[in-house]
Amino acid sequence: MPDRADYSEKIPNNVELHEDRRLQRALESWQPNFLSWWESMGPTLPTHDVYLRTAINVGRQGWANFGHVAMKDYRWGIFLAERDADRRIGFGEHRTEPVWQKVPGEYRAELQRLIVIQGDTEPASVEQQRNLGATAPSLYDLRNLFQVNVEEGRHLWAMVYLLHAYFGREGREEAEELLHRNSGSEDAPRILSAFNEETPDWLSFFMFTYFTDRDGKYQLGTLKESAFDPLSRTCEFMLKEEAHHMMVGTTGIDRVVERTVQLMKENDTEEIASFGGIPLKVIQKYLNFHYSVSLDLFGGETSTNVANYFTAGLKGRWMEDRRKDDHRLTEESIMVDALDPDGEIGQAEVSALVGLNADLRREYVSDCQSGVNRWNKILDSAGLSHRLKLPHQAFNRKVGAFSGIEATPDGEKISTDEWALRKGSWLPTEVDKTHVRSLMRPVHERGKIAAWIAPPRNGINGQPFDYEYVRFP
What we know:
The protein is mainly α. Helix content is 45%, strand content 7%. It has one domain: Orthogonal Bundle (Ribonucleotide Reductase, subunit A). It contains 11 helices and 7 strands. A hairpin with a 5-residue loop joins β5 and β6.
């Protein structure tokens, strides 16, 4: 398999698509449908061209080119990481056997389902973010939005390639359905509920790319361990691109907090809404919402399906090769979140296989905390005593052990009536959302930025902040 993609092809790829004419024709017949979806459900802001990176190589160095590209001419390609001919299955009952280059018949339905669910999230986020360009706080941010969008489009291509190449007619039908479901649609919504939520403003976008794309990182990390080698190699390359999406979220929230701190100090008050900023308590409410919704994406604390995926070799653990156990887990146990016999918030011991969702969520929570620590350093450096924090895992949950109760951000169980009275203190209210949206006035001039967010410390690919990242018609 070549490292570099052939950009002379109709569909750029490094999987030697030209050697399988039937597959090539099938994907070329899907391509116009994708472009039609992009035209109707992708970014709405008209642009002439955008300073984008385009993947050209799967090697460790120099894997992308940067340059101004018209969005409609962006070359979405198919990339798999380099193949390791000696790779062995790292976990489950097939551990140490050679990885699979074809789909085993007994696992066909399960693998297809995993690929479809992953594939469904990619176009969903593009649909959620399609109107954000009209309110971008700077050209730098606008460019980052479009970079996230085109790469989510490429990640859709990655999953569609697997469906077409390895799952026959059913795979082709599923690939079509990925374009027919739409985020927030009443008739044909996206599969996972977080991907049917609105992303109506840039604070929501930064929270989404920090929290929800971070869930994507962990889901891709488990699929990267898969015994089905083409899926593993696809996810390994997707993780390279996913890192940028999370950087957008991390540094975006950095800059919102930084500007909020400036306004608090300049005006000697926490109530900075009237000065054109986003108060810390509102930032905390948005954090509470996006974190709790993203926790639900990991599913229930216990799952026999995920146990079966692991045993079969379909889906491993985060950083499986660094785990110091037998990688089979038949004799291991784990503590998971649960309600105790009295209905109080607690934990329970379960088989490690059944508790794999909880294991993955634990890795995610630890990772999320690193961002909160970073934002709190900004507050600390400014001499402020305020701190942002992750809410308790029982807060605002719709999936899992705590879905049937209400809890405060500190993890205190409360009644439904008390939740109704107090939730506006913890989650964004219509007043909060209206204020945030009122700040979302576009700044599309070079070197300028909206007043509610600080400029970035660095530009993109060595370019300055005032570079012409986006050109308009």
